């Protein structure tokens, strides 16, 4: 793989889509400190916007209001990719955050995957190598290299496409930041592990084993779920390790009413899953 210096500088504008964990089963804590999971994930129409500039030289700059510089997962992803590529390039990555931080929507991992996908496509890297780099960047980063529905297993790095459905959900974001390590630490102290059912059953009745552990950090999560069910939601569940909650309504009138009422207290998005 090689890049002709005459092709540089070049710039790209990409979208990094959020996800929801439709369900999340935590099977066990592993000897390496990670947790064995089984989760159904789907892309939602909420995204960060990323501008990537590539030029001759050396160095990576990440401009982001949350976790700027080397603390940003996009920096780690770009660094791993350039290391694998074996050449020096100068990268400037500007991230406009629209995905709430600490909400269980995978904003940081999605940003990292978008950078890997964009740079890998420009350089001409094989897809299999991109997935390897993504797995090194973070447990759930590989999932964001796929679109639509997918199933995550292992520590999250094993992904496979899944046939699901498209539709509209109500996404509710309580005003609290939830730390994923804290939630898993709570889970370790009082494990809640459910056996995954068949895929159709999981799509019909999702369950999140991290709910109780996350609700200890942010009790509003449970309050939101109960409010959504009271307003006629057919499904209401937490995404990932929280704090965001999603709901599916079969009745449009109930969806409208819930959006109006919960919107008085929380940030709400009527949003597509696709």
Strand and helix map with partners:
Blueprint: E1 10-29, E2 35-55, E3 59-64, H1 73-85, E4 90-96, H2 107-123, H3 127-137, E5 149-154, E6 158-162, E7 167-173, H4 180-189, H5 199-204, H6 211-217, H7 220-230, E8 235-238, E9 245-248, H8 252-262, E10 267-273
Parallel strand pairs: 3-4
Antiparallel strand pairs: 1-2, 2-4, 2-5, 5-6, 7-9, 7-10, 8-9
Question: Describe it for me?
Answer:
This protein folds into two domains: 10-162, 2-Layer Sandwich (Ribosomal Protein S5, domain 2); 167-273, 2-Layer Sandwich (Alpha-Beta Plaits). 31% of the residues lie in helices and 32% in strands. It contains eight helices and ten strands. It has helices at residues 73-85, 107-123, 127-137, 180-189, 199-204, 211-217, 220-230, 252-262; strands spanning 10-29, 35-55, 59-64, 90-96, 149-154, 158-162, 167-173, 235-238, 245-248, 267-273. The strands form two sheets. Strands 1, 2, 3, 4, 5 and 6 form a six-stranded mixed beta sheet that branches. The model has no long low-confidence stretch (mean pLDDT 96).
**Quick one: CATH class of the largest domain?**
Alpha Beta
Total of helices: 8
How far apart are the termini? 34 Å
Structural class: alpha+beta
Total count of domains: 2
Order of helices and strands: EEEHEHHEEEHHHHEEHE
Q: What is the number of E strands?
A: 10
Main sheet summary: 6 strands, mixed
- The geometry reads as globular
The gyration radius over C-alpha positions equals: 19 Å
What would you say the CATH architecture of the largest domain is? 2-Layer Sandwich
Tell me the β content: 25-35%
Quote the CATH topology of the largest domain.
Answer: Ribosomal Protein S5, domain 2
Mean pLDDT over the full residue set: 96
Helical fraction equals 25-40%
Could you list the spans in which at least 5 consecutive residues all have pLDDT below 50? none
């Amino acid at each position: 793989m090689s890049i002709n210096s005459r092709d540089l500088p070049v710039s790209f504008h990409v979208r990094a889509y959020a996800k929801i964990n439709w369900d999340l089963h935590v099977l066990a804590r592993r000897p390496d400190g990670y947790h064995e999971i089984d989760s159904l994930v789907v892309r939602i129409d909420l995204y960060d916007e990323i501008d990537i500039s590539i030029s001759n030289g050396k160095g990576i700059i990440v401009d982001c209001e949350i976790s700027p510089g080397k603390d940003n997962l996009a920096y780690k992803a770009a660094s791993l990719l350039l290391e694998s590529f074996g050449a020096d390039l100068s990268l400037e990555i500007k991230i406009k955050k629209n995905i709430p931080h600490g909400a269980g929507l995978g904003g940081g991992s999605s940003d990292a995957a978008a950078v890997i996908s964009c740079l890998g496509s420009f350089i001409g890297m094989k897809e299999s190598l991109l997935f390897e780099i993504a797995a090194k960047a973070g447990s759930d980063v590989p999932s964001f290299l796929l679109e639509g529905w997918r199933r995550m297993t292992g520590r999250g790095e094993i992904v496979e496409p899944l046939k699901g459905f498209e539709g509209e959900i109500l996404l509710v974001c309580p005003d609290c930041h939830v730390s994923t390590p804290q939630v898993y630490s709570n889970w370790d102290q009082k494990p809640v592990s459910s056996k995954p059912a068949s895929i159709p059953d999981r799509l019909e009745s999702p369950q999140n084993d991290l709910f109780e552990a996350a609700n200890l950090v942010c009790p509003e999560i449970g309050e939101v779920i109960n409010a959504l069910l009271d307003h006629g939601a057919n499904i209401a569940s937490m995404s990932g390790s929280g704090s965001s909650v999603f709901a599916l309504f079969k009745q449009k009138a109930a969806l409208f009413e819930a959006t109006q009422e919960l919107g008085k207290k929380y940030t709400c998005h009527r949003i597509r899953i696709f």
